[in-house]
Design a protein that fits this description.
Elements: H1 13-27, H2 32-44, E1 52-53, E2 59-61, H3 69-79, E3 90-92, E4 95-97, H4 103-110, E5 121-125, H5 131-137, E6 143-147, H6 151-164, E7 169-172, E8 186-192, H7 201-211, E9 212-224, E10 232-233, E11 248-249, H8 251-261, E12 264-273, H9 290-293, E13 310-317
Parallel strand pairs: 2-3, 5-6, 5-8, 6-7, 8-9
Antiparallel strand pairs: 1-2, 3-4, 9-13, 10-11, 12-13
């Protein structure tokens, strides 16, 4: 756990090491479900990119002329082992990976609201394959830690960064429930596409307050329902075919959650309807996507009959 060197001595090192070691023992099992992703990670991480560009929409790791045609085919075949690709786009040794989400659009909405990231310590909660971590890295932070309990995403990020060689990025098989182990550690926390999967959102936000340094910033992005009142939908089983969705709030509801959790200087800075222009099937994500989640006879409703989703962005600070 080399990343511990980036954090102050007061963090709960013993408990954190215990959690880390248990998760590593779990992920290193010789079982198909783990080897399925560990094998392509092992292959891909042997390739080291000479050219890396994290400042453009399509995160670029290597160029086509850095590998032979045979090597490029090996790389493509192993990248496809991480399907479905949810976040992107990426260009990897000349291979365009068109993910389900046009993640660069979300990032472009956030950039004008970013705190100064240069030289800062950052957490990306539920970081997936690390697309946003790579974009953050373009702002020259001191260190970014991705929290990601999914084996698929864990190995995908490690494969990508094994090729990209960004020394100030790391991922661990941690969930948001482990944030309390990082008391007063982060200058900024990114929580994107997560809060509606939490059964107790205010407690989650309080954990983030605990993990932020005084004056630190939370950037929160969430699925939401339209409306200006502080309401939250509590779906019966699924929302837009997604299980594990506890609450689908309005922006004002999230604002109030953040206020009750103790954040200050809270602001809703973007709220937009979702569409199939931003979330869709691709060659790299060939399963159901946005159009399959929406009532075909009424685009303002999900297939379950709930209000169709929008996305809302908020920013808040821990009091200094």
């Amino acid at each position: 756990m080399q990343y511990l060197d980036y954090f102050p001595e007061h963090i709960n090192t013993n408990e954190l090491l215990s959690v880390h070691n248990k998760r590593q023992k779990w992920v290193n099992q010789e079982k198909k479900g783990f080897l399925r992703y560990r094998t392509p990670y092992s292959v891909l991480s042997q390739y080291k990119a000479a050219h890396v560009d994290l400042t453009i929409d399509q995160v670029t790791i290597g160029t086509e002329d850095e590998v032979t045609a045979k090597e490029q085919n090996i790389i493509r075949d192993n990248l496809r082992q991480f399907m479905p690709w949810r976040k992107g786009p990426f260009s990897i040794f000349g291979i365009d990976v068109d993910a389900e989400w046009r993640s660069e659009r979300k990032w472009d909405r956030i950039v004008p609201e970013l705190p100064d990231l240069q030289g800062k310590i950052i957490a990306d909660i539920g970081c997936n394959n690390g697309y946003y971590m790579f974009r953050m890295a373009g702002h020259k932070p001191r260190f970014i830690l991705g929290f990601e309990p999914s084996v698929q995403h864990y190995y995908c990020f490690n494969a990508l960064n094994g090729m990209a060689g960004q020394q100030n990025l790391a991922i661990d098989l941690l969930g948001i429930e482990h944030l309390h182990l990082f008391s007063d550690c982060f200058d900024a926390v990114f929580l994107m596409g997560i809060i509606y999967h939490r059964p107790s959102p205010v407690d989650t936000l309080r954990d983030i307050i605990t993990a932020l340094q005084p004056g630190g910033t939370l950037i929160l992005e969430s699925q939401a329902i339209p409306g200006d009142e502080p309401y939250a939908l509590f779906p019966d089983s699924t929302y837009a075919k997604v299980p594990g969705t506890y609450f689908v709030p309005t922006g004002q509801c999230i604002y109030n959650w953040m206020k009750k959790a103790g954040f200050s200087n809270i602001r809703i800075f973007c709220n937009h309807p979702m569409s199939s222009d931003e979330q869709r099937k691709t060659e790299w994500m060939c399963f159901e996507s946005y159009n399959d989640f929406i009532n075909p006879e009424n685009s303002r409703l999900t297939v379950e009959g709930y209000p169709a989703p929008c996305r809302v962005f908020l920013k808040g600070q821990k009091k200094a």
